[in-house]
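User: Please check token order:
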Amino acid sequence: MRTIAIIRRILTELLRDKRTLALMFAAPLLILTLLYFLFQGAGNTSADLAVQSVDDDLVSAMQVDGLHIHKIPERQTTDQSSNYTERIIRDNDYAGFLCQNDGSLHLTLAGADEAQSGLILQSLKAAQAELSGKAASATIASQAAALTQLESTVAALTSRL
């Protein structure tokens, strides 16, 4: 009996205290609303990336939502100075510039928006991982074919003995 009386007293005190009710109901709604707006803005990031002399397979693998890839024609000179790269980024309002020289990739980011830079880096890493996975798969398939051919050759030679 005494326990029920204590529970009833505590519940009536909670219901009469307006601050407690506000913290129980209004504060979570306010926090959830703020979190909604925080994460809603992060999903619609778009970035423009200029590419020059980059392998077409890599460019097609980088195609993700929000990343707009612009192909820049090759320069007549082989000098890829930072002034040229910065001028391309600044004049066209690109978030980054990706070029390929002697088999190595060079990425220059504008750095104005971290979300755009993150989108470019994420899509580049995902594309490189996808292409390396495809290359590994092709290598495994060719090695399996070579092993099968060797196996048949060994079987043919041992049947003669």
